[in-house]
Amino acid sequence: MTITITAFESSPDRGRGLARDFRVRWALEEVGQPYDVRLVSFKTMKEPAHLALQPFGQIPTYEEGGLALFETGSILFHIAERHPGLLPHDADARARAITWMFAALSTIEPTVVEREMAFFLEREETWYSQRLAMIEERIRKRLMELSTWLGDAEWLDSAFSAADILMVTVLRRLESSGLLDEYANLAAYIARGKARPAYQRAFEAQLAVFTAGNT
Length: 215
Fold this sequence. Notes:
about 220 residues, alpha+beta, Glutaredoxin, Glutathione S-transferase Yfyf (Class Pi), Chain A, domain 2, 2 domains
């Protein structure tokens, strides 16, 4: 059965691999599964057909036969459960990897996204600089804790896993902020993720969508 995912027809990230469909693309490339992409506009995402797949009108969605999923954590977990290579075989190591999947999405990402939303929605407010400083202080705390855990390790918990896909893509959202400059091991961790051939294939595929729409 062919896997079909949805992605932005015109992505706000301008093809930089920050849109959340990139996480799914990367996971599918890691496990060697072909997939189709259905591009959707912002208007289409709010229409009944898409809302039947994604109740909140977002991307990505994942369809395979009669199965339809949304939320990148759920989609990556499904891919990792169905195909070897993204979760360890050992039960304890598997549980730790799944824990780090939750940590990427529940502990690290919310404040990162809060910073982005503050910029887009509140930067004209007189109190924006104070709010930004508070948000960035919370981000630094999380980055310090993550940096301490990672140390000199290559990946979050021994072998590369779906957790690393999620964590690298979450951290990448801070690349232009300068906050990662304080944590050399996190910058190196992101670079290792970006160097993986599957990452490169996924990045090129997502960038091609932006390029095609701007030629």
